[in-house]
Amino acid sequence: MTAAAPLSPELDATLREIFDRRDRGNMQPTIDEFLAVLAAHPGDPYVLYEVGGSYDTAGEEETALGYYERAMAAGLAGDALRRCLLQYGSTLRILGRLDDSLAALDRALADYPESESVRLFHALGLHAAGRSDAAVGELLAFAADTVRTPDVLRYEAALRGNAAFLLGLDAQRDRA
């Protein structure tokens, strides 16, 4: 898979306008608008991703998966790929495909380790897969990395130590 051509400013503006007008309680108009853009830009990975996201928001996860997969196969790149991997992994989790969900979220975490949302959804995926020690460990590490209040900073070493312990327990279970 090679990266697709960058998103043109005009198409980017169109996609943003449609996204900004969406009504999460009634996604059909948004779906219809994105599908019309897709008809004008068939196979464009960024449009495919937005169509998938609109179906996902509408609760049509199975349909969303196909668009996410097509977007990634068409060379989706950059921050849109990060968001797509996160949403794809989350949708797989919702559909009960926990191993596939973790694989997508593992890829997102490896490619975008600084993304707060990826880290949080990765922890959610671990929890859903019955790996609660690792999920709590990731959340503790996330808190130690991002919550910079005096109270949390006072206990930063303890948070990091507990995170490492919980992640270690999970790794031991994997080897067993």
Task: Describe the protein's architecture and organization.
By secondary structure, the protein is mostly helical. It has a domain at 131-176. Helix content is 77%, strand content 0%. It contains ten helices and no strands. It has helices at 9-21, 28-40, 45-57, 61-73, 78-94, 98-111, 116-128, 132-146, 150-154, 156-175. Helix 2 (28-40) runs antiparallel to helix 3 (45-57) and helix 8 runs antiparallel to helix 10. The mean pLDDT is 96.
Q: What spatial form do the alpha-carbon principal axes imply?
A: elongated
Rounded to an integer, what's the Rg over CA atoms?
A: 18 Å
What amount of the residues lies in strands?
under 5%
Uncertain segments are: none
Task: Report the strand count.
Answer: 0
Characterize the largest beta sheet: strand count, sense, and whether it forms a barrel: none
Helical run tally: 10
Judged by helices, strands and strand pairing, the structural class is mainly alpha
As a percent range, the share of helical residues equals: over 70%
Average residue pLDDT: 96
Distance between the termini: 36 Å
Write the element-wise H/E pattern from the N-terminal end onward: HHHHHHHHHH
What does the secondary structure layout of this molecule look like, with pairings?
Blueprint: H1 9-21, H2 28-40, H3 45-57, H4 61-73, H5 78-94, H6 98-111, H7 116-128, H8 132-146, H9 150-154, H10 156-175
Helix pairs in contact: 1-2, 2-3, 3-4, 3-5, 4-5, 5-6, 5-7, 6-7, 7-8, 8-10
